[in-house]
Design goal:
Blueprint (H helix, E strand, L loop, with lengths): L2 H21 L2 H22 L5 H19 L4 H10 L12 H8 L6 H11 L5 H8 L3 H17 L11 H20 L3 E2 L5 H17 L6 H13 L25 H17 L4 H14 L8 H14 L3 H15 L1 H13 L15 H6 L1 H13 L3 H14 L1 E2 H18 L1
Parallel strand pairs: 1-2
Helix pairs in contact: 1-2, 1-3, 1-5, 2-3, 3-4, 6-8, 6-9, 7-8, 9-10, 9-11, 10-11, 11-12, 11-13, 12-13, 13-14, 14-15, 15-16, 16-18, 18-19, 19-20
Length: 420
């Protein structure tokens, strides 16, 4: 990644926050920022990155916004408003407003699904397709949610910072968005890289800021930060020197980041002692059991199964169901896991607003490539080589992540070769 591209990614969300707070017009500011980003992508590689990328983007986008408003004859009200709101030249404050923009996007006029979609698009920088894959809903549905969210805000009082009594509700939505940002960064939903390190690192940075700056009696912000640290601690061991995926049970655990693990374990231990148990805390506790085990065989799978049982009651979702099935298979054997998987795929359910950020219906589970990958691994353990090979092929077909696809296809080929 070039310096110019990195500077653009770092500066864009905070610059957009400055514009939205200045003008109160999210859609117009987003359009102006897109034009500024196009100008920067052409100018910065040739002329160099400016000393203050954010100030440059704010200045250029402000001009584009004013030009847009003034030239829009059909919207004379906006033209008049722009003339009144045009500020005198002023320095852009050296404050990271990204979390502020998160809170603005989690508007009280919007439902949770619309808050998630809008914030992931505007602040997280995810595409509509990436958001759809993360939430396990159709891409057209996400596009519709984003469009309606902008219209709903436009017809209300506009963007505003939450009152103190609204803060707790908005923070819950912010946590959900940060979780989905991290998930997309940890394993990209598409592309030729297993992970998007910049995205997961930004999610960790913002979650750490949220934990430090905003009081949270629920303990879920601490739980989320612990979950991210305990998961990201394994990043170096998840791929080999060629970039190929290395599954958890084959990873060199000496490459795991012990400092991150120690911090994550300390966070989740402390919060479980003082706060009500929440979904992110439970997920962090599961990650801690994995990280503190010397090997897959030495992992306390009975404890993990118990944690998943509790998590499934608090925040049911497809990935929770799948994680529990894996734990069940490790405790009771692959046949028990396959039977549970069949039951889960036959179940029905509606979309959930849980910590998993996704629906928990059997249809959503059956369509996901990870379901096919789990089925393939269980079939392999059960000795059903031909069926396992076919399931690996189907899992590879359904994922758009290059390293995952190559790993799954290689597993299928190895099983075919061993059976031949």
């Amino acid at each position: 990644m070039s310096d110019a591209v990195r500077a653009l990614r770092d500066a864009a969300p905070s610059a957009l926050a400055v514009l939205v707070r200045r003008y109160g017009d999210f859609e117009g500011c987003e359009d102006a920022m897109q034009e500024a980003l196009i100008a920067a992508s052409a100018q910065w590689p040739a002329e160099g990155v400016p000393d203050s990328p954010r100030a440059w983007l704010v200045r250029v986008a402000s001009r584009r916004y004013i030009d847009q408003v003034r030239s829009d004859i059909a919207r004379r009200r906006r033209e008049s408003l722009a003339a009144e709101l045009e500020p005198p030249p002023a320095a852009v404050p050296a404050v990271d407003d990204t979390l502020t923009l998160f809170l603005l996007c989690c508007h009280p006029e919007l439902g949770r699904p619309a808050q998630l979609a809008l914030t992931l698009r505007a602040v997280g920088g995810l595409t509509t397709a990436e958001i759809a894959r993360g939430l396990l809903v159709p891409e057209a549905t996400i596009a519709q949610r984003i469009s309606r969210a902008k219209a709903r805000i436009r017809s209300s009082e506009g963007f505003r910072l939450p009152a103190p009594d609204e803060l707790a509700a908005r923070i819950g939505a912010v946590r959900n968005v940060l979780y989905l940002m991290f998930t997309e960064g940890h394993t990209a939903s598409s592309g030729d890289e297993l992970a998007r390190v910049d995205l997961s690192a930004e999610a960790i940075r913002l979650t750490r800021r949220l934990h430090e700056d905003v009081t949270d009696a629920s303990g879920e912000t601490a739980g989320l930060l612990a979950l991210m640290l305990l998961t990201d601690a394994r990043r170096a061991a998840r791929t080999d020197a060629t970039g190929a995926l290395v599954p958890l049970d084959e990873q060199d655990r000496s490459r795991w980041d012990r400092a991150m693990i120690d911090e994550g374990v300390a966070l989740v231990t402390e919060v479980l002692d003082r706060a009500p148990i929440g979904p992110y805390q439970l997920q962090a506790a599961i990650a801690a059991v994995h990280d503190e085990a010397a090997s897959t065989e030495a992992t306390d799978w009975i404890e993990i199964l118990g944690l998943y049982d509790l998590l499934a009651r608090l925040a049911p979702g497809p990935m929770v169901t799948l994680g529990r099935i894996v734990a069940l298979a490790m405790v009771e054997g692959p046949a028990a896991g396959l039977a549970a998987l069949d039951r889960a795929e036959g179940a029905s359910g509606d979309e959930s607003g849980s910590g998993s950020g996704s629906g928990h219906g059997g249809a959503a589970l059956a369509e996901h490539h990870r379901t096919w990958a789990v089925r393939a691994h269980l079939l392999e353990r059960a000795g059903s080589t031909d069926a396992a090979s076919l399931a690996f092929v189907e899992a590879a077909r359904r994922t758009l992540n290059g390293p995952e696809q190559r790993y799954l296809a290689a597993k299928a080929e190895a099983l075919r070769a061993s059976a031949g």
